[in-house]
Each structure stands twice: as C-alpha cells, then as structure tokens.
Write a structure and sequence with these properties.
The complex is a heterodimer. By secondary structure, chain A is mostly helical. Helix content of chain A is about 75%, strand content about 0%. The longest helix of chain B has 20 residues, at about 5-25. Classes of the chains: A mainly alpha, B alpha+beta.
Chain lengths: ~325, ~600
Amino acid sequence: MLAYTVRRILVSIPVLIASTFIVFLVVVNAGDPVANFATSRQPPPSKAAVAAFARHIHADEPAVQRYWNWITGVLHGDWGPSVQPNLDIGHDLFTRFRVTLTLVAAAMLIALVLAVIFGVFSAIRQYTAADYTITFFGFLFLAMPVFWFAVLLKQAGIWFNEQTGSQFLGTIGEKSPYLEVDTTWNQFTDRIGHLALPTITLALVSFASWTRYTRASMLEVLNSDYVRLARAKGLRRRTVMVRHALRTALIPLATVTALDIAIILGGAVITETIFQWHGMGEMLVESAATVDVYRTMAWLLLSAVVVIGFNLLADLLYAVLDPRIRYD
Amino acid sequence: MRAQPSALTRGLALAAGLVLALAACSSSGGGGSSDKGSSAGLSSCNTQGKANTCNSAATKSGGTFTYVLEKNIQQWNVQDTNGNTFENAEALEVVLPQVFVPLPDFTVALNKDLVTSATQTGTSPQTLVYKINPKAVWNDGTPVTADDFVYYWRTNDGKDCPPPPASDSTQTKGCLPQSTAGYDRIKSVTGSDGGRTVTVVMAKPFSDWKQLFGAGYPLYPAHIAEKLSGAKAGDAAHMTAAQMTQGWQYFQKNPPTKYPTAGPYKMTQWVDNDHATFEPDPKWWGATKPSLQRLIFKVISDATQEPIALRNNEVQAIYPQPEVDLVNQVKSIPNVTYNIGNGLQWEHFDLNLHNPVLGKYTALRQAMFTAISIKDIMSKTVAQFDPSVKQLGNHNYVPGQAGYQDLVTATGQGSGDLTKAKKYLTDARFTGVGTALKTPDGQAVGPFNCRYTTGNQIRQSECQILQSDLANLGVKVTIKPIGAADLGTVLAGHQYDIIVFAWVASPFPTANAQQNWVTGGGGNYGGYSDKQVDSLIAQAVGTTDQSKAAALLNQADKIMVDAAYVLPLYQKPTFLAVQTRFVNMRNNSTNVGPPYNTAEWGLKK
C-alpha cells in the first residue's frame, strides 16, 4: 500500500506541472491588469506609477519565463506578487483555506452521516411512505438553487432572532467583531451562531445528492446474491445490513464524497459570498476578476493538491472497504 | 472608484428581492418609509441648505456603532496611488487630521480642531498661512507642528521623494503619490512660532489650494517617519529620499493601530478583511468628544447582503450603491432612516475620437447626442428608485457646487429632439438620414459599438436606449459588453466607439479637468484635443481666485459641449441607511464619505 501511495504521488507531479502551466498561460492572457490599474483610479496614476506596477507584477516578462520563475519561487516559499498591494499570497491562501475548512468540515460531516442514515433507510423501506418522503426532500434540496436557499435561510435566521429577542444567529462572517474581550462561552456561542446558517446551507445540498447515491447503491447490493445467501444462512438482519450490505454499498459513495469535498474545499463560492466568509471561493472570484495571475495560481495549486489528495484517499478507502482490492 | 456588481451579485440581489417580496406579504412591518428620497431622520437632507445639518440631535454616551466598508483595506497610505481608495479614506479620517474637510453639500469646511485659521495672505507669490491649534497633539504627546506639513509636502511633490527607479525590482524604493497636483507648485513650507504657524509659499499659483494637506488625504505623523528612518527629529526639511521612502512604506504597510494618531478615536484593532475597531481617544483635544463607546467598520464586500445585516442588527449603517431591490428591502426594515442623495459620480456617454468618422465630423457627434433622450434613459433606470434625478449639464461641476452652470441642455444635447438632430446632419450634407447614414463624401456611418461593463443592467439599458435613438438617424449600433476585468484594457486601448461609464467629480474640479479634458491627459481616453480648452484649463489651475477658476473652467466646458465629445447623463444616486436610534450621520457623497464627522455620531438622547 505504501509503495502504491508513493507511486500515485509521483504520478501526480507531472499532472500538477501540466495543469498549472496550461492555466498559467490562460490566466496571463485573460486580461491586462496594468491597463486596469491605469484606469481604475481617479486621478489616474502617473506614468511612473503604471510602469512601477507593471514591473512589480512582472507583466513585462515573457509568460514562459514568468511561469518558470513562479514555480521555482513556490518551491522556495515565494508565491509571487499580487496585483493587490501588500498582499502576501501564501498567507492569504492558508488563512482562506482554514476559513473554508472551518465552514466545510462540519457541514460535510453532518451531510455524510445524514446521507448514509437516510439513504439506507430509504433503500430498506423502498416504495414506502418514508422512502417517498425522503426522496421528495432529496430532490427538493437538489433542485433548490443555493443562492436562493441561503438567502431564505438568512430570513429565517432573522425571524428566529426576532422571536427570541436574541442576536444568536449571525448572517455575516465568522464571528461578531466586538466579542474579543468577552467571555469564552459567549465567544463559543457566537461562533456557533455564525456557523449555523452556512453549515445548514452547505449540508443540505450535499446531503441531497449523497442520499440518492446511498439509496441506489444500497438497493443494488440488497438485491445481490451474496446478501440473499447471507439472509438464507439465517444471519441476523442487522448483521446482514451493516456488515455485508452497507460496507459494499459505501464504496461508490466514498468516491463521490471524496471528490465532492475536494471540490468544495476549493471554495463554496456562493455560500461564502452570501455569508461573507472570506474563504477560497472569494479568493478565486477576486483573483479572476482582477486578473491576478499569481494569486489564481496559488489557488489552483492548493485546490489541485487537495483534489489529488482526496482522490488518493478514496482509492485507499476502497482497500479498507473492499477486501478484494489490494494495492501492491 | 467602485467595482461594478458582477452577474453573481445580480443574481443574489434578484433572489434577495424575491425572498423579501415573499416576506413582505406575510409581515405587517415597515415603519417610517415614504416614497420620497428619504425617510424619518434623514428626510430633510435633500432640502436646500440642510445637507450639512440634517439628522442632527443630542447624543448620550455609550453604544457600539457598526458601519459598513465595502472593500478590504490592504494598503494604508491613502496618499499613495495604490492606497488611494474610498475605504481607506473613510477609515483614516477617523484617526488622522486634515485641514479642509469636504462636506455633504460639496463645499469644504476648515477643520478648526487642527488649524484655527488657514488663509491666503498674498497672491504674488501666492502665500498660505496655517495657524495650528495650540492643543493639537499626536496621541503619544508629540505636538502637531509645521514639520508634519513639511513631510507631507516633500513626500507628495514628486521630486524630493521620486518614484522608484526601473532598476528596483521590488518597486518599493520611492514614493508614488496619488497626485502631485499643487504640491509640485510649492516653493517652500516653513514653520515659525515654535512650529505652530505654517507658511506655504507657492512657486506657481494654485487655485484649489484648499485641497492641500487634506480633502480626504490627511497628515501622517512626521516624527514617526523621522524616528524609524534615523532622520533628525523635527527636521523633515532635510530628510533624504531614502529616509522619506522608509516612512512612506511604513505608512503603507501598517494600519494606524501601530503608530500615534490625532483624531477623536484611535484604532484599537484591525482584523484584515474583517473589521476595524475604534475607541474614543483620551488624548483628543477637539471641540466635540465622541459619545460612542465603540465604533466598528465592518467589511462586507457583497452589497446585496448589507440590508440583511442591517435588519439583523449586525450593522447599524450601510452605504451601498442603490438599486431598486436594495432600496425596497431597506424601506421594509423598521426603525431605519435612509436618504437617496445626488452623488459626485456622474454617468456619461463618451465618443471615441480615434474613430475616423466620429473624430472628423462634429455635426455627426452633435446630431448623435441630440438624438439621445436622457429623460428616457433615466425613467427606465435610476428614476425607478430616485424620481428626483435630473439631467446633468456640466462636465466639471454638479448642482450645488458654486461653479455649476447648465451648459448642455440649451444645446439640445440629450433632449431626444429628432428634428434638430436630423437638421445637424442635413446641414452638414450627410445623406441617408433616418435610413442608412452616409458622410458627405459617401462613406457609411457606423455601425458603432456601444460598450458597457458586463452585468451592469443599468448601463446595458442605457446602451439599448442609445441604440434605438440612433437608429432613428440611420446609425446602426451594436451592443458589446466589456468583461468584468477588461474596462481598463478597453479604455486605455481605445477599443470602443461609444462607451458608458462614470467619473467622480470633486469639490476641487481643476485637477480632474486637467486629467480628463486636456490633450494627452491621463483620463482623456477618447483623444479629445483643443488648444483653447487646454489653455483655459491651465489658466484655471494657475489662478489664485476660485471664482475666476470656475469661470475659466465653464468657458472651456462650453467649447467642449459644442464639440460633443462626452455627454453627461445624470449624477449617480448615493444611498445611506442608518438605524434611527443613532443620530448625526449624513450622506456625504464626496471622496470622504459619511464618516467625515464620526466624532458627532452617537446614540440619540
């Protein structure tokens, strides 16, 4: 397994280089940040300021040379200059990754647990009222646009606050600005109050699709010969379900969730925007809008590493879940 | 300048609007709203002469007040090109002093806490004398002196601290002031009376002298720059370029939590991309002591989320660009007062004179501008939430400013008068008027493109109305959006025939005029050039008499209006909404924004 892991990591290096190179060329040609700088302010910057800006972001160098300088710089911890003044891209990247991680972690855990429970339940009780209800809500959450649902949740949050006369649920940011001096307990509840709404938003959307996967995969397994055999052998229903059926049914779910989580760690753009969490999603949107080459590349690099990492994790999980699979 | 809302934010706004429409059906809430431009406390702000005094009341001590900043602040030197942002000006004016402060009615007021008087004592050479308030002191105990003015001048004149040389790979070894206007005309700045009197002698006269050492660009503590660069204390006059650069960079990188300030509040905390916390400064000597316990500036970068945060009491005041949905949402929030004011930003159509046909025929341009109906444009866009909006008639001044004269409407430009427009063309011997327009020498006119920033619904409508208006003359127009990040490329590369965007007017219009209308000016993207205009504007900049400067600017503008180069449409509305339990906030549409008077903000008594 170790050899396999090392091999997979080594294979991913050329993938990373190729993908970053292609994206680098695309971003470099996506717009002209120097012209934007020259026209975005009033009074317009002096010619000296425009020239200084162009030199600062290396806009006057050939793209291939810039790419080489960038990639060798990254290996030494230098992420390159941003078009935004005073922005340390490395610091920005990891701060934002932490923010997105905070936002996503709880949501994904809740979504996963609920998806498995409801998916299995729905499969076992196929075509019952319970199955129809779960299916109905699954499709409802799937069909609901996130930006609409999130805003609706915010209104519900405000209604809750008004009814309870409290300020428990927050709609903006990770925490209230003035609680730094308050007690630990208040800070804790403030954090929870700010996490609640975006977590529900993210969790419900992922839950909706994952519960469909679990149900489908569970149904397939329940109808297979070995499960029938297990039942015929007289094993207890619970043992058949959990040890034989569920374990197999989780294999496709492992792939789907691993990839979904990897992608969402690259930024839950809409949820982050609506709840004003300054995470990876906002970073991507800002970088693209300002043609910020090095910042976009930093985002891409981390997101690519996360996707590759979670892909590997999914493959390794196969081995744990399916005894027939061995990596040598 | 503010960024335009993206397609994403538009979608969010629409969704928010829908949700609120649903919410409104079930709730009986909503107090203090009216169909006029304002409500409750801010209702009198649009009345003539009330802009600077409306929403006034006595305050009681205590309370935390959270105001929204729409962008993060990354660079703290507002005098620097990179740091010259609206949000930076808003945050710094709370803690740093400036001589003249722009007011909501677009006039400027002397900041008597900093200087007891600022007068022009001579005109040849132009001499300015500032008497510093004897109580004025940085909060580390160092008095504010002439040295702070000397440091300001020498870092901003473009000569004593020059821009970084090309050989500097980091591009940090030098000063890049946002504008050297005025400072480059100063001959000397000297202190007397123990440094409490500052005498400025100009080498060349400068009409907008009240802009110096303030107007949104406050003073930084020179003694800190001297200390950290190893220069002699109190001797900014002899600092080297390298020493000044060190100070310049220090103020770029460090928020004012790190160095002594001299305002009603001190900034006690800055959390990047999140918020600034201000607390009353015990060292504040000014006439008005802040009554708030705490003032917070919270960064919310998506304007559509601001009304929700206001409703949830997470913020107490918002200052977003108004849109129909947003204004309606705020109207439904109880105990919130709001004001729609006329801003200093003005929307306009520009013609690109680099286009050979547009550049050659003045009659064609006049006809095009005359055929456009600004009334139609307004009624289909901004008038939907601001019925009081009017056509703007000047390129340098807005109504309310002393120099304002309507020079445009009398020419018929923007009237939609088709007969008059067609007459321009037939008189100039154009053919195919109303069908397929051709120049007198038989060349086809157009098709022209009309360009606007993508996702901006208002500007899209403006291009559409222009398209149908010009079709009546036989001119075909195609509408071509500009990618979110490409406005700069399009402007600087002259990649347009007709473009619609906004300029920001200023209480000090001569510098803007020099940038935008003079041959080769940094903002003169369409390539307008007229020797007489150049000379009139140069004279306006160089006079010591402001009313004479205004007359000269208007004389130049008359020539420019006749040349039909830029058609002003209307002033963009601004929108301030505040909870009614707080008072003394006003809609200041200038470059300093509503926080121009934070010392007065407080809980209503």
